Structure formats: C-alpha cells, structure tokens
Amino acid sequence: MTNIFTRRGAIALMASVAIAAGSPALAEDWKPMKPVEMVIMAGQGGGADRLARLFQTIIQKEKLAQMPFLPVNKGGGSGAEALRYLKDKQGDAHVIMATLNSYYTTPIQTEIGVDIEEFTPLARMAVDVFALWVNVDSGIETIEQYAEAVKAAGGSWRMGGTGTGQEDSLVTALLEREFGISHTYVPMAGGGEVATALVGGHVDATVNNPSEAMSFWQAGRVRPIALLTAERLDSMPGVPTFAELGHDLEYYMQRSFVAPGGLTEAQQAYYVNLLQKLHESEEWQTYARDQALLTDFLTGDELQAYFLSEREKHRDILKGLDTPS
Q1: pLDDT digits (tens, 9 = 90+) for 242-256
Q2: In the chain, beta strands by DSSP E
Q3: C or N terminus of the chain, fewer CB within 10 Å?
C-alpha cells in the first residue's frame, strides 16, 4: 500500500513563508471581540476532543488570547454536522474547527454541499497514529494470533470504531484486505467511547489512536498489538509496527484547525500566530510526546495543498476498499 502521509515530510515547511513571516504584524490588526467557538467534528472523549480541550486550557493558562475559546462537539453524520456548520458560518471569524481525516472522507462519501477548498486553513498541530488494540483478557499477543481469532469467529468478531466510513472503518478495511479476515464493525460517537467499550468487553478490538487508549494500556486493561507507523514510537516501547512484521500497513491522521471561508488575511494571521505560540508551549510538546503524537506543524498555502493532496489520496483509497458500515 502507498503511504498516505510521508512521515515528517512537511517538517521543513514549518509555518508557511507568507503567513509565518507576516502573522505577528497582521495579527495585531485584528483580535476576537467575543468568545471564539471551537467546533470539534467528533464526539466527546476522542482524540480530536481531547486535543481541543487541552488547547482551550493552554490558551487560558498561558493567556494567549483575551477572549475565551469554547469547545463545541458536532460529530453527527461522521463530521457532516460540523462541516456544514462551518460552511454556513462563511465570513465569521469567531468560529474555528478542529479537524481529523473525516475532513476529507465525509465530503467525498456524502452529499452535504461542502468543498473543503473553500475553508480557511489555519494550522496542522500534529499527526496522530493508529494501533490495533485488544483486551488483555483475550490472551492475544501477536498479529498471527489476532488473525486466527478473527477467522475463527466467522465474521462475528466485533471491531469498535468511530462513525461509519471514517478513519477507524478505513483502517479496519485495510486490516481485512491484508489478512483476509472479516469483522462486525460497531460504530460509536467518539474514540473515548470506543476505548471504554474495549475495556468493558463490549467489542473485541479497536484501532484507537494511542491518546485514546494509553491510560487503559498503562492500567493493564488493553494491549496494543502493532502500530500503523513507519517506525516504532518512543512513547510505546516494545510495540512493533506492521511493517516490521511484514505487512505494508501505514496510516496517519492529521490534527488541524481551519476556519470558515471569507476571513481576511489579518483574521487568518491572528489564529496562525496564536496556534504557533500554542505549538511552542511546553505543555503541548510534553503532551504530544507522551501521547505518541507527531508534532509536524504546517500552515498557510502549504497546509491547504496538503489538505487537497490528502483528499485525493483518500478518494483513491476509498475506491479500492469496501469500508465497514
């Protein structure tokens, strides 16, 4: 499989030249005059929700903004609710949105009248990773044991994931194609609910982001079998990658912010400058390191080009997969 994200390939583009060079000055030309709505295109407890609320805390603690940022979850329709909401907020500079890969897949798979090219790119804060997780009580420790267990279940093996046609179902489809197995996909509202369902035995496996399942792993309740990354992660010692196990499986999820279309350069620059400061904060860097997030910061035209490139890559991947629904 062709990688849909070249790991750290854009790190040399940290903050686009045009915006990064001009943002401090431009940012002084405009500031929010009322609280800023921070829309999250996913349910509570998942990776996007955790990040947005962490960012809210850091912004307040570090006094990065005079107005408060208020997280609002709009995860309905695999993020369609949030996307449509942002489109209807055209020109409103007091709304930003935390994105994930459904930013690409939902407009491709649904008729919601949204073209992400019309939105205002702000910043990619990180790239998140995926792992295959099982409950420790399953006794499964290797990918071979996992494949055998799923085959023995005859299609009844329950894979918990967020939404339908989203990242988790896409990764599930990749696993099914690679190992010739079949799952019963159980869609849920957010990654936090998915991780909890695995601990409670309500599903048999998940492909949670590490940040969503790390605490349960540390508590000895769940076990990561393998990572869909190019290399092992320092924050998850001992966990192999699918690649080193002989399986060409690699998938990443962007954690970014965008705003409605129609913002002025000064309004865009304000948020880019704010997010740059947030990116550089010690609390964010520590959290990202501990939660296996790759802090590949990107803004401006380069970020928009990345979005559009990833949209086309996801379009191609979706054509070649029968994603669980």
Answers
A1: 999 999 999 999 999
A2: 36-40, 69-73, 95-99, 120-129, 131-135, 158-162, 184-188, 205-206, 222-227, 252-259, 298-299
A3: C
CA 120 from centroid of its chain's CA atoms: 18
Confidence of residue 26 (pLDDT cuts 50, 70, 90): low
Q: What are residue 197's phi and psi, to 5 degrees?
A: -65, -35
Query: What angle do helix axes 167-179 and 102-109 make, rounded to 10 degrees?
Result: 80
The domain defined by 129-245 folds into D-Maltodextrin-Binding Protein; domain 2 (3.40.190)
**Strand pairing of 120-129 and 252-259?**
antiparallel
- The residue ranking higher by pLDDT, 94 or 2, is 94
| Rounded average pLDDT over 107-118 | 94
**Per the CATH hierarchy, to which homologous superfamily does domain 11-128+251-319 belong?**
Bordetella uptake gene, domain 1 (3.40.190.150)
